[in-house]
């Protein structure tokens, strides 16, 4: 399929590849494949909600995750809340 082909081209050309995994539970095959991809330079980023910004809606949680994905590609957005410490 097109997504697999695009990922293959990213790996071949050493471009940034981000894998946002959502299926759970993960079995041994999933974990081994993610390990192989990680060793090839892929960023593995499960969409784990961040609660330090006190989201009040499901949309807030989704926006935080989308903002983190965009941040990996250096795309500016107003979606990502940065914690100051």
Summarize the helices and strands and which ones pair or pack.
Blueprint: H1 2-12, E1 18-19, H2 28-39, E2 43-44, H3 58-72
Parallel strand pairs: 1-2
Which tags fit this structure?
45% helix, 85 residues, mainly alpha, 3 helices
3D structure, described in words:
It is a single chain. The protein is mainly alpha-helical and 85 residues long. The protein folds into 2 domains: 46 residues, no CATH class; 37 residues, no CATH class. It is built from 3 helices and 2 strands. Strands 1-2 form a two-stranded parallel ribbon. α2 links the parallel β1 and β2. The mean pLDDT is 93.
Strands across the major sheet, in which order?
1-2
Largest sheet: 2 strands, parallel
β-strand amount: under 5%
- Based on CA inertia axes, which overall geometry fits? globular
Q: What value does the Rg take, in angstroms?
A: 15 Å
Helix amount = 40-55%
Output the number of helix runs: 3
pLDDT < 50 stretches: none
List the helices and strands in order.
HEHEH
